[in-house]
Amino acid sequence: MNTEKQDKFIEHYCRTGNATQSAIYAGYSEKGAVQSGHRLKKQFNDQIQERVKKMVQDMVPASLSAIQALIDQGESESVRLAAAKDVLDRAGLKPVEKTEVTNIEAMSDEEIQRRIDVLTKH
Predict the structure, then answer these.
(1) What string of DSSP letters covers 71-104?
(2) Does the pLDDT value for residue 10 go beyond 90?
(3) What does the pLDDT look like over 81-105, one tens digit per residue?
(4) Dihedral, CA of residue 14, residue 16, residue 21 and residue 25, to nearest 10
(5) What is the pTM of this model?
(6) Cα 33–35–36 angle (5° rounding)?
(7) How far apart (Å, rounded) are the C-alpha atoms in residues 48 and 10?
(8) What is the CATH number that goes with domain 1-43?
(9) Which residues contact 120 (CB under 8 A, 6 or more apart)?
């Protein structure tokens, strides 16, 4: 069970990422804030990670709403397109960025024809 000061440190650190300032905010001595902050950050690392994860999860609905607003009402077409691409990328629909280069000069006429046939059948 954490003390009130420890809980204040964890909460403030999750919002700011600054261990020294979080120690001071929580009521630890300014003189030893660097050491206290470092120690508390290590001591409560698991709780900090869980709290940050929860904070991010809590932000998802608002973030999606903001992206939707950009898609619907973005000031320019490039803003709307970038927001739409971001959604598609995160949904796993990112376009393939791989380009295959074939040395056609090293291929036989038959191989070239087979590849053309495959491409034109689809």
Answers:
(1) HHH-SSHHHHHHHHHHHHHHTT-PPP-------G
(2) yes
(3) 999 999 888 888 877 676 777 787 8
(4) -60
(5) 0.62
(6) 60
(7) 6
(8) 1.10.10.1400
(9) none
The full length of the chain comes to 122
* Residue bearing tokens 């397109």: 81
CA proximity to 36, closest of 3, 79, 82:
3
Distance CA 14, CA 26 (A): 13
State the burial class of residue 11 (Cβ atoms within 10 Å of its Cβ: 0-12, 13-18, 19+). middle
Task: Locate the domains of the chain by residue range.
Answer: 1-43, 59-96
Reading the block at residue 91, the tokens are: 């949904």
- Is the CB of residue 57 less than 8 Å from the CB of residue 50? no
Name which of 77, 93, 74 is nearest 85 in CA terms: 93
